[in-house]
Structure formats: structure tokens, C-alpha cells
From TrEMBL:
This is MOSC domain-containing protein. Gene3D superfamilies: PK beta-barrel domain-like. SUPFAM superfamilies: PK beta-barrel domain-like. PROSITE patterns: MOSC. InterPro entries: MoCF_Sase_C, MOSC_domain, Pyrv_Knase-like_insert_dom_sf. Coiled coil: none annotated. Residues 16-168 form the MOSC domain.
Length: 180
């Protein structure tokens, strides 16, 4: 199966969930047009409180649909957009990508993966027990964050459900994704 877009979502106000849309417009250096998290500088409220001038490495949020498939049998039904993702993917292991991987989505959009989404208490408030499914503690004590990846828009364009996703890995030694 080739990598593709399952759904797209955006929200003009801050909150956990975003509204599914027929398409979203990605703007280079900015993010998703009309989305509360778009901008050159950080928009996540807790990060703004610490330093509102830091660069926005979280312009676009992507989650793999396979995560929703895996948690459904555990009683956690999550619809597209409900965990705040802008792009729901299928057929790509987002969490295994190295930092700075580039995703060409649709005809012209390019997103550079900057890091992992750090699941927060809002997920638990959205659905009891869901936060525990988004974070796993390995035997060595390390945390595995499963709530998708964040990225910045290198090249703008329209993104729709059904669009293909092509992956370009960075040159040189690959760095694993960390939370951003």
C-alpha cells in the first residue's frame, strides 16, 4: 500500500479537536491556512507562555490512521481530527522517520518532520484512558510517544484526502525524532 492522506482537518481556535475539511491549504513557513497553530513563531499556549519568540516547529500535526485502528479494539474510538491532527495518514510509519525527513504531499506541498507530538493531559480530558494509549514506557524506562509527528511547511499547496505522500530521508547520519 502506498502512503496517502486519509483526512485533513483545521481549527481556527485552540482546543484538542479540529474539524475535518475537504482540503487544507499549506503555506510555506506558516502552516495550515486558518489553523490556530499556524505561524512563524510558536502558537502552542504553554510554549508561548515560556517564550513567544521561539520558532514554530509545530506548524502541521500528522497522525497515522493505524494508531486509531490499534486503539479501537481497546474501546477508544477516535474520529479524524479529534486528536488535533491536520493530516491523518495511512501507509507510512511516521514515528520511525528520522528528524528532517521531508514529506511531499499531493501535487506540491512539502512538510519537513521536526519531531514527535508530546501527548498532554488534554487527551485524557477528551477521552478517559486515552492518554495511556498515546505513551508507552519501555523496559529501559524510555517513553515512546505515539500521538504523531509535527512539521514545518517548506513548500505550500493544497492537501486533500486521497493525496499521495512521498518520503525523502535526510542525508548523513539519521537523528531519531524527539518531542517538540
Amino acid at each position: 500500500m502506498s502512503a496517502r492522506v486519509e483526512s485533513v482537518s483545521r481549527a481556527g481556535e485552540h482546543g484538542v479537536s479540529k474539524l475535518p475539511a475537504e482540503l487544507i491549504e499549506l503555506i510555506a513557513g506558516h502552516g495550515v491556512a486558518g489553523d490556530a497553530h499556524a505561524g512563524v513563531t510558536v502558537k502552542h499556549r504553554s510554549r508561548v507562555a515560556k517564550d513567544p519568540t521561539q520558532p514554530n516547529l509545530r506548524q502541521v500535526h500528522l497522525i497515522h490512521a493505524e494508531l486509531f485502528d490499534a486503539i479501537a479494539p481497546l474501546g477508544h474510538r477516535v474520529a479524524p481530527g479529534e486528536l488535533g491532527e491536520n493530516i491523518l495518514t495511512r501507509g507510512i510509519n511516521l514515528l520511525a522517520l528520522p528528524a528532517d525527513s521531508e514529506l511531499r504531499i499531493g501535487e506540491s506541498a512539502v512538510v519537513r518532520v521536526t519531531g514527535l507530538r508530546n501527548p498532554c493531559a488534554q487527551i485524557e480530558a477528551f477521552q478517559s484512558g486515552l492518554l495511556a494509549q498515546m505513551v508507552e514506557k519501555r523496559a529501559d524506562g524510555a517513553l515512546v510517544r505515539k500521538a504523531g509527528v509535527m512539521g514545518i511547511v517548506l513548500n505550500g499547496g493544497r492537501v486533500r484526502p486521497g493525496d499521495s505522500i512521498e518520503i525523502s530521508l535526510p542525508e548523513g547520519p539519521h537523528r531519531p525524532l524527539g518531542p517538540v
